[in-house]
Design brief:
Elements lengths: L8 H17 L4 E4 L2 H8 L11 E5 L5 E5 L3 H6 L5 E5 L8 H8 L7 E4 L5 H10 L4 E4 L2 H7 L3 H31 L6 H19 L10 E7 L20 E10 L2 E11 L4 H20 L6 H14 L11 E3 L6 E5 L12 E4 L2 E4 L3 E4 L1 E6 L4 E3 L7 H4 E2 L2
Parallel strand pairs: 1-5, 3-4, 5-6, 9-17
Antiparallel strand pairs: 1-2, 2-3, 7-8, 8-9, 9-15, 10-11, 12-15, 13-14, 15-16
Helix pairs in contact: 4-5, 7-8, 9-10
């Protein structure tokens, strides 16, 4: 367990220096980033995104600058943001926010300025006005730097996995307690609320300093036919004996996410329920074994999903094998047909094949995986064997 979720200043200094090397390799003098996850990655400043932008400018020369609204300047300093803080008065104001960043950066310094595809058209126009002499170059240099996690980040992911496993246990226990009491089974919404309380209370009880992000702990809960819709939101539907239900959970420790998902069967399973679940379990096992350094994401995805296709269930596939995880629950690279990014040691990805049978249920198993030097290992550890997910009624 961790006393603090905040990463040390030395780590931010190291990753900023590494990013400068990457900038040089791309022929860039500086990079500008305004996505909240990029801002947090580069400086350790976490904030609630709104109409008032927070922007980082990292240059080959000079200090790293963090532009924030004046009303968040003290908050950035309290988080020990690893940058020189530049505050602007209000938005909208007499001048656009990026004007203040350009003035602080000495606009003539950056000849080639990188920006990510997340930048809005309006924000890009502000950058052009603030850095009139710079050539703007679209670049994913920050996102690519985020692919491989440092040991300190891995420790945060591991703690998020511990809490996610506890939430899975808590969700199942709530159902089992209701069965023992002989009353009504809980609804999807009631299970989701209970799980969220367990996750957040555990985090605050075990950590002296919690990094608050928009999604701290909890997830989706769906049962029966509702679970055949991959991202359905929890409803008032109460679980029923014979149904399949899914706990799609996760949390963020120090802003680093983990997800863990399990499908459960309530009561004596049917032959179809066993067939569907075992096909997904085998695909997840094979897909996990395919995750190793040098393997293209698209190839791992093909190997994983071919198990389901070979089982004659390909018509029930609705999504890829998985995706990258870090400061975002879903981020690049993508374990998908369209992404040939080679996996590398230190990446964290989800391994979550699933099938969805309309009118019946969905079946999905997910573990967050750390790519190692010779394979991959799951952060989450809740059991996934068939006998482990059947809840007697």
């Amino acid at each position: 367990m961790l006393d603090t979720q905040r990463l040390p200043a030395a780590l931010y200094a190291a990753l900023q220096d590494d990013l400068r090397v990457a900038l040089a390799a791309e022929g860039l003098d500086a990079v500008i980033a305004d996505h909240p996850d990029d801002v947090a990655y580069l400086t350790g400043f976490f904030h609630h995104p709104n109409e008032r932008p927070a922007v980082v400018l990292l240059s080959q020369e000079g200090p790293t600058l963090l532009l924030v609204p004046e009303l968040e300047r003290e908050y950035a300093l309290a988080q020990h943001a690893a940058a020189e803080v530049v505050a602007y008065p209000e938005f909208p104001g007499l001048r656009p926010p990026l004007h203040y960043l350009g003035a602080a950066a000495e606009t003539g310094r950056a000849r080639r300025l990188g920006y990510s595809g997340d930048l809005t058209v309006d924000r890009l126009d502000q950058v052009r006005a603030a850095f009139p002499s710079a050539t703007l170059v679209r670049s994913e240099v920050v996102m690519h730097a985020r692919y491989v996690k440092r040991p300190e980040e891995v420790a945060l992911h591991a703690e998020a996995a511990r809490i996610t496993d506890l939430m899975l246990v808590a969700g199942r226990a709530l159902v089992e307690e209701a069965l023992s009491a002989g009353g009504s089974l809980p609804s999807e919404a009631e299970i989701a609320a209970h799980i969220g309380r367990v996750g957040t209370s555990t985090m605050y009880a075990d950590h002296a300093e919690v990094v608050v992000v928009s999604f701290l702990a909890g997830g989706l809960v769906y049962s029966g036919a509702n679970s055949a819709r991959p991202h359905a939101l929890p409803s008032g539907h109460r679980l029923r004996p014979g149904e399949t239900f899914m706990l799609s959970l996760g949390c963020a420790v120090g802003g680093r996410f983990v997800e863990g998902e399990r499908t459960f069967i309530l009561g004596e399973p049917s032959a179809d329920q066993r067939r569907y679940y075992e096909a997904v379990r085998e695909a997840q096992a094979v897909g996990g074994a395919a995750l190793r350094p040098g393997v293209p994401c698209s190839e791992a995805n093909r190997i994983c999903l071919d198990v389901i296709r070979d089982a004659g269930l390909g018509q029930f596939l609705r999504h890829r094998q998985g995706h990258g995880i870090g400061l975002g629950m879903h981020e690049a690279p993508w374990l998908s047909d369209g992404d040939d990014t080679p996996l590398a040691a230190g990446m964290v990805v989800s391994n979550e094949p699933g099938i969805y049978i309309p009118g019946h249920a969905g079946y999905r198993i997910s573990d967050s995986m750390l790519i190692t030097e010779d394979g991959a290992r799951p952060f989450t550890s809740y059991p996934r064997a068939f006998d482990d997910i059947v809840i007697p009624v």
